[in-house]
Amino acid sequence: MKPELIHSLYVNELKDLYSAEKQMEQVLPRMARAAASQDLKASFETHLLETRDHVARLEHVFSLAEAEPEGTTSRGMETLINEAASVMEHESNPELRDAALLAVAQKAEHYEIAGYGCVRTYAELLGLTEAARYLQATLNEEKQTDLKLADLAEYLFHDAVAA
Hints:
By secondary structure, the protein is mostly helical. The protein has a single domain (about 5-160), classed as Ferritin, core subunit, four-helix bundle (Ferritin, Up-down Bundle). Helices cover about 85% and strands about 0% of the residues. It is built from five helices and no strands. Helix 1 (about 5-35) packs antiparallel against helix 2 (about 40-65), helix 1 packs antiparallel against helix 4 (about 95-125) and helix 3 packs antiparallel against helix 4 (about 95-125). The longest helix has about 35 residues, at about 130-160. The protein is elongated. About 35% of the residues are buried. The mean pLDDT is about 95.
């Protein structure tokens, strides 16, 4: 594949990730307010701070690529955000709402993990070492958040399942 095609794919995927992160930045405060568990609230609030760092990091990566971050809406993340909104609007049982919000949050993490893995690889193929380093840092954080959410789900719902 020609480098200019990889570069075009790289920029388009970066735009999708930027949109996804911006969408998460908007919904995480609502998810935190909707969570019944204080641990889940804290997890969403912490992830909001990380998400803001990811947005800033992506903006730097865009500057390295001499590209603008705007112009794409992440349809994948939009679907997950709509799922979260539906849970927050319709689920009145606090434990079920927390479980469903945790599931949506993990789906979002998996979406981001896949995206960051791809763009990091594209950056490496293009010889964009600094960008690849920034993208790998975010990928590592997304993986850690996914593990924390899985641990939190086990902690919160272990007793419910064991009963």
